[in-house]
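Chapter summary example: a protein plus 2-acetamido-2-deoxy-beta-D-glucopyranose.
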Amino acid sequence: MELIKLLYIAVSLVSLTLVSLPPITPQSYACDQRNPETTNFLFCDTSLSYEDRVNDLVSRLTLKEKVQQLGSGSTGVSRLGIPAYEWWSEANHGIFSSRYAAKFNGSMPRATTFPAVILTGASFNEKLWLKMGKVVSDEGRAMYNVGQAGLTYWAPTVNVFRDPRWGRGQESPGEDPLMVSRYGVKYVNGLQDVGDERVSGSNSRLKVSACCKHYSAYDLEYWGGVDRYHFDAMVTKQDMEDTYQPPFRSCVKEGHASCVMCSYNRVNGVPSCFDSQLLQGVVRNQWNLNGYIVTDCQALQTYLKCNYTPTPEDAVALALKAGVTMECSIVMQNYTENAIHLNKTDESIVNQALTYNYIVLMRLGFFDGNPKSLQFGSLGPSDVCADDHQQLAIDAARQGIVLLENKGALPLSNDKTSNLAVIGPNGNATFTLLSVYAGMPCNITTPLQGLQKYVSAVTYEAGCDSASCPNQTRIAAAVEVAAAADVVVLIMGLDETMEGEWIDRDNLTFPGYQEQLINSVVAATNGVVVLVIMSGGPIDIAFAKNDNRIGAILWVGYPGQGGGDAIAQVLFGDYNPAGRSPFTWYPKEYTEQVPMSNMNMRANTFPNFPGRTYRFYTGNPVYDFGHGLSYSTFTKSIISAPSGFLVQLNSPTSRNHSGEAIDVSAVRNCNELNMKLVVEVSNTGSMTGDHVVLIFWRPPSSTEVNGEPNKELVGFKRVKVKQGEKRNVSFGIKLCKRMSVADRAGTRKLVTGKHVITVGSSSEQQIKHTTDLRVSANAMQ
Ligand SMILES: *[C@@H]1O[C@H](CO)[C@@H](O)[C@H](O)[C@H]1NC(C)=O
Ligand SMILES: *[C@@H]1O[C@H](CO)[C@@H](O)[C@H](O)[C@H]1NC(C)=O
Ligand SMILES: *[C@@H]1O[C@H](CO)[C@@H](O)[C@H](O)[C@H]1NC(C)=O
Ligand SMILES: *[C@@H]1O[C@H](CO)[C@@H](O)[C@H](O)[C@H]1NC(C)=O
Ligand SMILES: *[C@@H]1O[C@H](CO)[C@@H](O)[C@H](O)[C@H]1NC(C)=O
Ligand SMILES: *[C@@H]1O[C@H](CO)[C@@H](O)[C@H](O)[C@H]1NC(C)=O
Ligand SMILES: *[C@@H]1O[C@H](CO)[C@@H](O)[C@H](O)[C@H]1NC(C)=O
Ligand SMILES: *[C@@H]1O[C@H](CO)[C@@H](O)[C@H](O)[C@H]1NC(C)=O
Ligand SMILES: *[C@@H]1O[C@H](CO)[C@@H](O)[C@H](O)[C@H]1NC(C)=O
């Protein structure tokens, strides 16, 4: 099984690299003022509107020239002074290097590498997400200015982390649709916004362009013999409305992202990039995307291999018709002209696609001449890997780290630690810290190096050859070191060979002999034992949770270039942890109960199906979504919250009982109804720290709506509270958007009756408040 899987991965990687793409030319710019001809081109005239400029540009192109611009490796039009432009760049958590993206050489050989998004997600800190986006776009612009990077980045990933086995869960901020939505909006703002002012319209200038991916219902790599290219995600209207769509809807409507990427998989039988209802219907027409729609790379080739269409010309025509405006790869460039000759598509559709694409480049300033004379033109080598950027990489990791368990072992004290043993295959991890889609980091601090800054006598034994820990040969040496130590830090977990692009997990246990290594070390030492888990997804660690000899457990995601410093600062109490788990920690049996390919969120949609994520899971998790401890103690109280809402309808209703489900479109001024909530947070412990206030909601049950969530996150804020002090934290929760439920037809309904608001996750002090929602007798006419 494993071998077949590896073989499969190897073969697919080979087939990917065999695809020939045009040679890469340095990123450059159009409308170079040194060329006098450009003064004759209206498309170079910055006093005109983007639309007028693009119309002028497209009208000058021959059909042959046009089709060459439909691929990510666009050829440019040299007779008009438009250079080739590579659209494919990546920036999931820092500028990524690859053949098609940024080049790490010359004056900028490195860039700041932030933690895997799943860890930054765990910070529940919108300000951090925005700041990170700004740093990444500063570095991207700096690299663009010298021709080492593009302006169009295919990030963020806003697919919810639906199944704990998903190898790319680490690229997503978490399993909750609201949290993923907020991450997407903030990261997109950080990448795209040109100033500190809020984005006014969606047609504003862009710093760099962001792309929400992968649309839609994409979150399976290779599981149970099905790969992402052949996977048909069967999604109910209800799950679509309240789980799969929200992050993309926010990314486009609130984040004003200038791109959406369609995914490899099918959704209810239709390949995503051929789905005109989703792309043209929803993204373009309902959400009003002002930007381009790009296919995932080689999606059209894979559709052809799957025989979804008979010919490449059909594939091109279907994609264009569905709303795709650009392809990552070369099928469109090769076959669009012939598709037009065969009357499978029309030149006007091509013109429309090019218009969308070029407007994005115009907004980026690509047609405004030398970028060094534009805004951001002064960004250069000193802005990449700048000290404050590297500090932010450490801070992002610290803010995300989740203290899962603390039986008094933490924080460690360096005075009292004379002999520290670091044990585990990830104890001196370098590239594993960086996670997937990472560039060349400015510098890496490994966990061992981070801890060496606190204690001089540190011994290190990996205990396994690698994270897969295939045999027990090195356990004895680890046991020996542990026996002599007064503090043992076990740094265990996964790596990119077990979770990543193309690689889903089969189980939720520690790989190989890791569990045995942990147990052997714990049995051998009288010292304090701390378990640190490095992974993108959850592991069933119930055995460690229940072992009182393990004094504390931390989850550190893949913490990025500053991960070693972040881990050490948290362990020694220089940073008070406040991260919250962005996913549910399921017991290992979960993988037997739930086929990964089953997209249902709700429990009992088929016999014995326990449901997915904290919103619908009916089993007992090892740790719940939102769980996370601190070295301090916080108490909360509700200062103010409405006791009820009396909503008015647009027309009278004959029924009026608790549990009535009212279509949100029938509620008067629905979008303006806001639930204001003030929570007082008080730090009653002995250490200053951050606290994440989580607001959950549970709707009244209604026979008219089936499948209400157990509970659902409707608001969150991370605040700093000094030791002994208090702070008020305010929330404005949109009633119709957040406190409505999707019915089976995917329609949003407000349910009358008692809505329960709970402040706090299931493992902390919880305060409940009930708000009664009723319908006013005074219906509007
Ligand atoms: C950087 O790499 C690119 C692509 O490999 C190459 O074309 C370019 O000349 C290199 N630049 C420097 C300064 O080495
Ligand atoms: C596209 O055309 C080029 C040049 O003719 C060819 O080498 C390449 O194989 C074609 N690729 C595809 C996917 O059609
Ligand atoms: C081309 O297709 C269009 C729309 O499908 C059709 O109306 C038209 O008659 C076709 N033209 C030719 C020449 O086949
Ligand atoms: C830890 O990793 C660093 C960076 O790769 C390396 O220089 C160092 O020798 C390693 N230390 C041990 C004890 O393996
Ligand atoms: C890189 O990180 C190591 C380990 O933390 C540190 O000793 C070194 O000073 C750093 N180098 C730079 C240039 O920041
Ligand atoms: C243990 O695994 C390593 C590879 O990780 C291998 O080199 C070594 O030979 C194995 N030892 C035994 C005793 O199987
Ligand atoms: C669980 O999966 C990991 C890879 O993710 C593998 O190394 C390990 O052998 C598997 N364990 C079992 C018991 O199948
Ligand atoms: C929170 O608000 C309440 C009501 O306005 C006020 O009494 C209290 O002092 C505030 N607490 C803080 C810490 O500002
Ligand atoms: C619904 O019932 C509430 C009391 O339960 C009442 O105040 C309200 O007027 C009724 N609304 C309608 C439209 O009958």
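Key point: The first strand starts at residue 73 and ends at 74.
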